[in-house]
Amino acid sequence: MPVSDEREDVLLLDVPSTGDYLSVLPTATAAVATRLGFSLDEIEDLRAAVNAAVALLIPAEPGRPRPFRKKTNDQPLRCRLAVGEESLQIVLSRPKGEPLPDAGSYQWQVLRALTDEVEAEVEDATTVIRISQRRPATEADADTQRHQIY
User: Fold this and answer.
1) Which long-range contacts (CB under 8 A, 24 or more apart) does 32-37 make?
2) In terms of CB atoms within 10 Å, which end of the chain has fewer, N or C?
3) Domain residue extents for the chain
4) What topology is assigned to 10-146 in CATH?
5) Quick check: pTM over 0.85?
6) Cα separations in angstroms, 120 against 6, 39, 101, 134
7) In this structure, are residues 67 and 54 in contact, taking their beta carbons and an 8 Å threshold?
């Protein structure tokens, strides 16, 4: 997905894969979505989608609930928020290339229900989840649509 030709509008975050830091990812997503004019419901949907993607990327540790874990040499979770002309793309990735949970899991259902597009793959030694959400029409477009005579 290309970003704007005028400037590259990308936010990159690398956070430790522990609960204390993972909350930064949905918060950063909400901040970007707010700036782009998403509604409050759309922003909350994106927050929930990012949380679901994080839960997919952080494997469960026996005896401890996800995502509260930290092992020695644990790799950070990487988030890339790219603002395109027509959509916001959120790419979450984690080194190790571990397989993701079954496509029928609760987190996958949440992701599919709350986003326009979602895909996942293991690239080399990295597990990647890509979320794409169409940007809302501008306020001027919304006003025009409200006042159209059909």
Assistant:
1) 32/81, 32/83, 32/88, 33/88, 33/133, 36/83, 36/88, 36/135, 36/136, 37/135, 37/136, 37/138, 37/139
2) C
3) 10-146
4) Heat Shock Protein 90 (3.30.565)
5) no
6) 29, 26, 11, 18
7) yes
